[in-house]
Write a structure and sequence with these properties.
Largest sheet: 6 strands, mixed
Radius of gyration: 31 Å
Distance between the termini: 22 Å
Shape: elongated
CATH architecture of the largest domain: 3-Layer(aba) Sandwich
Helix content: 10-25%
Strand content: 25-35%
CATH topology of the largest domain: Molybdenum Cofactor Biosythetic Enzyme, Chain A
Number of domains: 4
């Protein structure tokens, strides 16, 4: 797989992209001793000597420069304010009474030194690494990047993906349809899966099952796209021209057919210019599984994302699968009182039964070396 270059991305557009730089702390966090309660700031030494009533010297709000505390006095202080010089203890407003400019502690209230103070640099220090390359930027990461003072960040490029659905029988949603035709659904579903993983530049086109038309349109998209995903036309039928056309266009085959179900007929190759080409089966379940299993990881790798840690679940029902193939079994996830993630198998009638996928959370990998998988078997989980 190629590794696409990084590009500068505005902070507001960074969520969902793959981080390609180390984000370093601009300054200490907190950048000062920060007050965490409304109340008064005092010197603990005054309290330790027995003082319980403190003349109010002044009031300091959050965002104002720190004031130096006079001996024996207190400063009214607000949450988020910088700790006044000479103060090392905050008394919550609920624990004091104020009369005639004097704050008096509640009888019996016990004070601890440095209470309700968020110490400077206790979260991290200036120059610390906050985020490292290879992660998908989350909304929380955006806050961290902003705290580092960055208005933009280096991220993996947003690849141009082209999704090409082949088949004379396909009719787009909203168009009149005859009894012998079927609705075109794979392209929209593939685009949705890619979008859910942060790849939103995914445009679709329907191409008829004609060699010349396929060659012309695929060639045009190879020129414009970073990655091509085709759906249909890769099996052994008389109108399955895709592998032949791709070969004619100079796309070098890497593999054709995978020992798995669903998705056995999948085709993969590399076009001139180091452009990946995935030709997925036309059956909807096969297409969606292959998209998640192969296309998404390829995009992640090319964008600079580190390999994710594997996720596992326990089967919540017996599964028998006898063919000498790896089985990707759709599942719905539930959890039990013991905190286990359970994968409930969802049966599909055929590789075209995409309606059964609605409500599933992903699929599990059942290795071909085994034919019976009893309830409780730990299995690798892939979320859609």
């Amino acid at each position: 797989m190629p590794r696409w270059p990084a590009e500068a991305v505005a902070l507001d557009d960074a969520a969902g992209r793959v981080l390609r730089q180390t984000v370093v702390a601009e300054r200490d966090q907190p950048p000062f001793d920060r007050v965490t309660m409304d109340g008064i700031a005092i010197a603990y030494a005054d309290y330790a000597k027995g003082q319980r009533a403190f003349p109010i010297q002044t009031t300091q709000m959050a965002g104002e420069p720190a004031t130096d505390l006079d001996a024996g006095c207190c400063i009214e202080i607000m949450t988020g304010a910088s700790l006044p010089g000479g103060a090392d203890c905050i008394i919550p407003v609920e624990r004091i009474g104020v009369a005639e400019g004097v704050a008096t502690l509640e009888d019996g209230y016990v004070v601890e030194q440095r209470q309700f103070i968020h110490a400077r640099a206790s979260d991290y220090a200036q120059g610390d690494d906050l985020l490292t390359p290879g992660r998908r930027i989350s909304p929380l990461d955006v806050a961290v990047i902003a705290s580092a003072g960055l208005a933009e960040v280096a991220a993996g490029k947003s690849p141009a993906v082209r999704i090409l659905s082949t088949g004379d029988e396909l009719v787009a949603p909203g168009e009149p349809i005859a009894a012998h035709q079927v609705r075109m659904s794979n392209g929209s579903a593939i685009a949705a899966i890619l979008g859910s993983h942060g790849y939103n530049d995914a445009h679709q086109e329907h191409i008829a099952d004609k060699r010349d038309t396929l060659e012309e349109r695929i060639a045009a998209h190879l020129d414009a796209a970073d990655l091509i995903v085709l759906s249909g036309g890769v099996s052994m039928g008389k109108a399955d021209y895709v592998p032949e056309v791709l070969g004619k266009l100079g796309v070098d085959i890497v593999f054709h057919k995978v020992r798995q179900r669903p998705g056995k007929p999948m085709w993969f190759g590399m076009a001139p210019g180091d452009k990946p080409v995935f030709a997925l089966p036309g059956n909807p379940v096969s297409a969606l599984v292959c998209c998640r299993q192969y296309v998404v990881p390829a995009l992640d790798k090319a964008s600079g994302m580190l390999d994710p840690l594997p996720e596992f679940a326990s089967l919540a029902g017996d599964v028998t699968f006898k063919p000498d193939l790896t089985c990707y079994q759709p599942v719905k996830l539930v959890s039990n009182a013991a905190g286990q993630v359970l994968a409930m198998p969802v049966r599909t009638n055929t590789s075209g039964d995409f309606a059964a996928l609605s409500g599933t959370d992903g699929y599990v990998e059942l290795l071909r070396e085994q034919s019976f998988f009893p309830t409780g078997t730990p299995v690798r989980l892939f979320r859609w």
